[in-house]
Amino acid sequence: MSNIGILGAGRVGTNLAGKLAAAGHHITLGSQNPESTATRTTGLVPHVAFADQHTTARTADIVINATPGGSSLERLADLRAELDGKILIDVSNATRDAADGLPGDLCYPGSSLAEKLQTALPGTHVVKTLNTMVFTVMTAPETLATPPTAYLSGDDELAKRTVTGLLGDLGWKPERIEDLGDITTARATEAMILVVPHILRRHGFKPFAVSLAR
Predict the structure, then answer these.
(1) In Å, how far from its chain's centre is CA 148?
(2) Total domain count for the chain?
(3) What is the domain-level CATH number for residue 157?
């Protein structure tokens, strides 16, 4: 089992923490105010430790970025020493909000948050995944009527194999995991987020994923 640190204690981070802890991994949920996070999530994420983000990144073997994508680059660049030599799983999308608060545009057109993180953290193995779906699907892909796709982007093959194993612990079957290639392919999946607000406006907040049909 892995020692996993999750940066970000919102809906995405706590959702992942609960499922990975249930799979037997040692999980630390990193936030700016660990005591407040622990109080707020009491009962929601049992068997999870709480710490500040520097401690979480330093003590984990694998780190998941579940911070808001618009500020992720600045936050994680400040953790360069703590993240050196580790796998960083990036599940965030860097977007600018439209007037209604839903994603309206990309922060890094022609690039991606994952690419920016890899450049800022050259000693870290960045893997992009799980950013093309509503957060509930990340840990329960079987709940959708149509099997969803989890895409992978990253430069390090061993890191991607490790992440594929963790996706299995979240309920993802191997045939539904699509390795797109190196980290530059993340710009394709990050751009998929732009379809999400239109679907939410029409149908409300219902579980779905932007997937590959075969």
Answers:
(1) 16
(2) 1
(3) 3.40.50.720
Residue 211 lies in a domain: no
User: At CA 110, angle to CA 109 and CA 115, rounded to 5?
Assistant: 95
Q: What kind and span of H or E run contains 177?
A: strand 177-181
What distance in Å separates the CA atoms of residue 118 and residue 161, rounded to the nearest whole number? 18
CA–CA separation, 66 vs 182, rounded Å?
A: 21
User: What b/e sequence results for 174-210 when a residue is b if at least 16 CB atoms lie within 10 Å of its CB, and e otherwise?
Assistant: eebbebbeebebbbebbebbeebbeebeeeeeeebbb
Residue 150 belongs to domain spanning: 3-203
Judge whether 213 lies within some domain: no
CA distance 122 to 214: 36
More confidently predicted of 46 and 11: 11
209 domain residue, yes or no? no
- Do the domain assignments include residue 44? yes
Instruction: Read off the pLDDT of residues 146-194 as tens digits, 9 standing for 90 and up.
Output: 999 999 999 999 999 999 999 999 999 999 999 999 999 999 999 999 9
- Indicate the pTM of the whole model: 0.95
With a cut of 90, say whether residue 61 has pLDDT above it. yes
At residue 66, what is the residue type?
Answer: A
Q: Is the pLDDT of residue 117 over 90?
A: yes
